[in-house]
Design goal:
two-stranded antiparallel sheet, 9 helices, 11 strands, DUF374 domain-containing protein, alpha/beta
Amino acid sequence: MGLLKRITRSRTVQEALGFLVARYLTFVQRTNRFVMEPSDAYDRIGPQMPVIAAMWHGQHFMIHFAKRAEDKAASLVSRSGDGEFNAIALRHLGIRAIRGSGARGRDIRKKGGAAALRGMLRALADGEMVVMTADIPKIARTCGAGIITLAQMSGRPIVPVAVVTSRRIDFKSWDRASLGLPFGRGAIVIGEPVHVARDADANALETLRQRVEVALDVVHERAYAIVGTEDPGARKKPAPQANLARSSRP
């Protein structure tokens, strides 16, 4: 491990950086003019709390802007060194970290996926909202089965959420991460809850997985439209097909 990495992985440095990031994000939240859509989202979602707040990876920096002050929340955070830094920042923002992530073919015990699932189930049972990315690890904007399993086992609804700002930094990472900048406009878009029945079969679960994926695309598309910019991580839509019947005429 290089010297710079050793320094940034030290507890003291991570605590300081996590605090500074939390303060920066609070500054961004306070200096952007946010619009919530729908305007009565809290009235609709509030009675269904605790919910599973779903987001796309890369949009995680500002997702806590959608949380009300009175809502208890926990967020799934990986066990990596970067995850430790994120967990510290979340703590300063009033969100508890649950450590672990999906394994995607690797040792699930090492990644902490099973323990994380148990932790999220306990959180929901105790009245905490759980915030998690829906993507398959390292495959951006493809909803995995994990969030569907959590909803099925907990009986809590999945709520798609998007939080974006007009002024931001868009990184060229695999997840096209975005970090808001101060003094702009912001949008918080909250989609309709997706309920997963405990007795849903494999076909129903796949249908619901696709529904969550589409719903997350829709709330992000709408949020970026509100602030007047394009979504840098949006999946490319297929080109329109030519009218084959017409072109085949002599």
